[in-house]
Amino acid sequence: MIELTGSLRAARFFLVLATLAGAGRLWAQPVQPEAESGFAPRPSSVSNGFMAVTANAYATDAAVEILQLGGNALDAAIAAQWVLNLVEPQSSGIGGGGFMLHWDAARRRVSAWDGRETAPRRASADLARRPDGSQATFSELLATGKAVGVPGLVAMLEAAHRHHGKLTWERLLRPAIRLAENGFAVSPRLHGLLRDDRLLRDDPAARALYYRANGDARPVGEIMRNPELATTFRAMAALGASDFYSGKGADRIAAAVARRGGALTAADLHDYRPLQRNAVCGPYREWRICGMPPPSSGGVGVLQLLGLLERTGPPHADPANADAAHLFAEAGRLVYADRARYLADPDFITVPQRELLEPQYLDRRTRLIDERHSMGVAQPGELPARYSQADDDAPELPATTHLSIVDRAGNAVALTSSIESAFGSRIQVDGFLLNNQLTDFSLAAEREGKPVANRLQPGKRPLSSMAPTLVFDAEGRLHAVLGSPGGSRIINYVARTLVALLDGKYEPAAALAIAHAGNRNAATEIERGRGSEELVRELERRGHTVQRVDMTSGLHLIMRVGDLWVGAVDPRREGSARGD
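RESULT FIELD:
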């Protein structure tokens, strides 16, 4: 393994290294890490064997342990995910769900795995109604049993393991069990989120685990153990998903949700089924991009956004300049307008996935983009009346995780998982936190007499923006594996990174460090503390309302360079990349 920085010196060194390895010319424009437009890139890792990139060094170590034992990419992803549940409990875990793309290099096949939570059978469209009939707010629902959907992550990963796994299921749980029993050092990010959260202390089990007797969050570096979670993992190792969905574990989950006013029952857990869906794939210039289909909007959204940009003209080498930022924001308006109107769980509504990605449709939408003036709020595209719905209003908060793994055989996994907001519903059971994913449904079931596509219905999966992504070159070789947390901004994060990599020829770590800018069909958002004032003034001159906001992505990227894999992490979080 070789570590690199994003500096000009390191980029030149890497260019020489890759040339010697047969990779040829790499990046035409190495990016200075100190550029005003972004963060200083974190060191990258380079390997001619396997590569693992996750949100925490403990999880990356678990993935590497499995890969060194001869496990494949899926095995490593599963082991890393259980460790993330332990060390990054604010973001994901067995109390939540996720979406995963798997690349089988031998069969040259992409599989899309849907482990999204489902609404309980007794869930009501009046989720957001107060007793007096008025509409409740997101914050009123957040830390209640009403917000908890049926977790899907364990069932999804177990099903995927039956199809693609190599090592035993039990072996994949050992790193997390060992760490839960022996302890791990509290990270700065975990400490800060524990310190600032106003709701988690209200759950007695969570308070006892994460806080001292005086209510202070456990400090950075303190060794923390979670014996309850170790016990839960031991049951999973011995029994698979059966105890979680049909045994005493399921009873405890249902009881905890009921105590907080929720509708989820043990029967809902027993009835949960993960789904294997067809990945949504499409062209972008000479590349082929594959993503997750509905109920995630990530795959369709990224492909739409890239398709619109491709039609606006030749690629912009610098995605941070005013012309590129303007076009990206205007394309984003159109994508998010369509997302709100047309995308939801395809098992409950007819989703016009094919129509939204048709070349003729994208041609029509592109004609709405003016290179010099903002269109303001975009309207959804016109589609046949059978697709007519009202617009969604779910907030989809940014607390999620993503991991990318490639093994020695070239198999790959892009896994994005979540419990929705930081610490989910703040309901802890058996050492893990339950999700609040039902708040990803629209708070209003209908508007002006029309139903909202993403309205709550029993058994339905809420709309998501999670966008695990695979990129293939013109010869069909796997070129990149990536994804990000970030709520509904994920589509913009992933698409902007792809533009930097594929059009701007950015070095991977530098592509993850550029300042975020994008539009979700409202204000054009520029990352707080990043992006020049000149850029803001130029966007405002073109009619944009600009807001500076925190945009804490967590992009984790693996990219092929010749015969090497380069792993890069987002400098905004605590990610770690290792190869061998």
